[in-house]
User: Which sequence fits this backbone?
């Protein structure tokens, strides 16, 4: 299976038809996603897991809906089973699934840790679009790739990440932000 994108790996529009897929099939419009092994708005994987984020988790009549500021974004893990037929793989249950109050725009897997970052998933009464307009900074979370447990949280960083703007290398985590900066967490 391969990491594929329905509209390109740089499309950050987060609409219902834009997703990344871990699949043998070319992704396209498939409302029920019934042919894809694993899919999400962002995906990462290693030899043990496929992890991702789902934005559209609830049904709104015939379509999946997006309800910001409610229960958060779904982060999930599925076991990676090389050589398994995709029809069997799509039936494989998630190893774990959690909801976090972060509009995930960046994700990286480093060893047994999953890092996600993005604006907070809130809708303030005085400025309902503030998080969507990047005026509320960002949150950075570290989760266990094994069980989804929250390991650490850094809240209200100055600026949100660019789309897919997290990198892990040489024991450090790098966050590229919309204000044109690169922040290093840890020693390179």
Assistant:
């Amino acid at each position: 299976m391969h990491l594929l994108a329905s509209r390109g790996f740089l499309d950050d529009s987060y609409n219902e038809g834009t997703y990344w897929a871990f699949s043998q099939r070319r992704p396209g419009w498939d409302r029920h996603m019934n042919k894809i092994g694993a899919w999400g708005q962002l995906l990462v994987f290693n030899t043990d897991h496929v992890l991702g984020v789902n934005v559209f988790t609830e049904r709104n009549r015939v379509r999946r809906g997006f309800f910001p500021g409610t229960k958060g974004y779904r982060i999930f893990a599925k076991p990676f089973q090389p050589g398994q037929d995709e029809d069997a793989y799509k039936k494989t249950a998630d190893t774990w699934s959690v909801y976090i109050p972060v509009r995930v725009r960046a994700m990286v897997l480093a060893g047994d840790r999953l890092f996600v970052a993005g604006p907070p998933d809130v809708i303030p009464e005085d400025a309902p679009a503030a998080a969507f307009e990047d005026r509320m900074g960002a949150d950075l979370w570290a989760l266990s790739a094994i069980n989804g447990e929250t390991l650490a949280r850094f809240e209200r960083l100055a600026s949100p990440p660019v789309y897919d703007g997290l990198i892990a290398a040489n024991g450090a985590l790098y966050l590229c932000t919309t204000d044109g900066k690169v922040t290093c967490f840890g020693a390179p």
Observations:
- The radius of gyration is 16 Å.
- Helices lie at 86-89.
